[in-house]
Amino acid sequence: MAWSTLATLVALFTASTSAAALDIRQSARGSDFLRFSCSQLVVERADPIVNPGQFFSPHTHQIVGGNSFNITMDPATIDPPKQSKCTSCRMVEDFSNYWTASIYFQSPENGTFKRIPQFANGQLNGTVMDQTGGITVYYMRPFSGTNKKTTVFSPGFRMIAGNPLNKQKASGPLVNCHRCLSARDRVSGGSGAPCDRSDTAEFPSKPCPGGIRVTVIFPSCWDGKNVDSPDHQSHVAYAPGNQALAGDRCPASHPVRIPQVMYEVMYDTSGPFANPEYYKNGKQPLVYSFGDKTGYGAHGDYLFGWEDGALQRAMDGLGTNCFSEQCPVLKLQTPKAANECTKQQQSREDIGSDTWLKELPGGVQVY
């Protein structure tokens, strides 16, 4: 996103949607969410949730977080806080892993593919974060209702949001969405809340010279028992209502309110990728790494890895002096340290970052 979404969330939490930017900054510290940057750890075909142990997984992901990330993340054998030597996230105690599918540009001239790079997100002060690629992560308590009690995830917890098999817009509130940015909105990210009427489930149908902001909103309710499920979704649920960003209610089947995780990923579709000629006659040149040209299959994966008690302390501190990256109960590392936490691909492969590929990595077919 950028600081505009941050400002909108602050306004939601403070019931002050007309507040000036200065007022928003002053009221921000009483708001109920963490927001921090995570730099790019690695880009590769690996997915230890959906395809554990598989070399390679079917499609390319950008992964951020703890460097213990592996093709197999069995909680019985891997404990990210203990086995990671660094994290690409600003929060030192967060060794979780977060990953999303890559987006490729398919040349209308010859059909070859080039990976769209990620770029840094914006901050509330109107500057960009100092990070290499990566994503912006949110952890949110209820922004409405009276019960703010939020129970953090148990070790081994994992979940996914969205479905790469979706070929049409899913029913209900948008939980994964795309925002087409103009050049002047490259830092601010536009205006409005995440996944509102400014966003679309599908890829934008016009050039986006300021980039595309992809938002992934995870469920906010848990069954209280299982850290995973066969489909990696049934153990969690979205709160009832007509919006993905949740209040304090949960269905009886999933009664435990958990932190609502949200990602924002900025894709740099400026320059040659924004040629208006590529968007004529209802066509557009972007495709997800799993072959989806619609955009409806956008999704994200989450694997919990905070050190003992750290996230709970932060969630309990929200609403007082804990906000965004300014949270005294957590340790914050420098952007430089986060950027330096990287790892090599587990098996080397050309992913189209610097070269043009004749096909998507893994030979994935476009549909």
What does this structure look like?
There is one protein chain. The chain is of the alpha+beta class and 367 residues long. It has one domain. Helices cover 10% and strands 20% of the residues. It contains five helices and 16 strands. The strands form four sheets. It has a five-stranded antiparallel β-sheet with strand order 1-7-14-10-9, with no helix packed on it. Strands 2-3-4-16-8 form a five-stranded antiparallel β-sheet, with no helix packed on it. Strand 5 and strand 6 form a beta hairpin. Helix 1 packs across helix 2. The longest helix is centred in the N-terminal third of the chain and has 12 residues. About 4% of the residues have low confidence.
Outline:
10% of the residues lie in helices and 20% in strands. The protein is an alpha+beta fold. It has one domain (3-354).
